[in-house]
Amino acid sequence: MSINSTQTGLTGLTGLTGLTGLTGLTGSAVGVGAILSSSDAVRSPWNLPEPGEEPPHIPSNETVNLSNWTPQVREVTILTDLLSRLSFKDDGNEGAISIWFQHDHPHGGLDHAPHPSYSKLAKLSRPNEEVFRSQLEYVRNYADQRSERAAEILAQVGYPTEFFTSIVPLSATKHSYTLQLIHLVQQLASHVVLRTKHSLACRRPDIYSAQIQPIIPTPGHGTLPSGHATEAFTVATVFGALLDDTIMSFQQSPSIKALLLSVAERIAVNRTVAGVHFPADSTAGAALGTTLGNYLLQLASGKSGDIDAVEFIGNNATGDFDKSVIALGDSGCDPVVKWGTSEVHGEPDNLFRWLWLKAKSEWEEAPAAGGGNG
Question: How far is it, in rounded angstroms, from Cα 277 to Cα 261?
Answer without folding.
Answer: 19
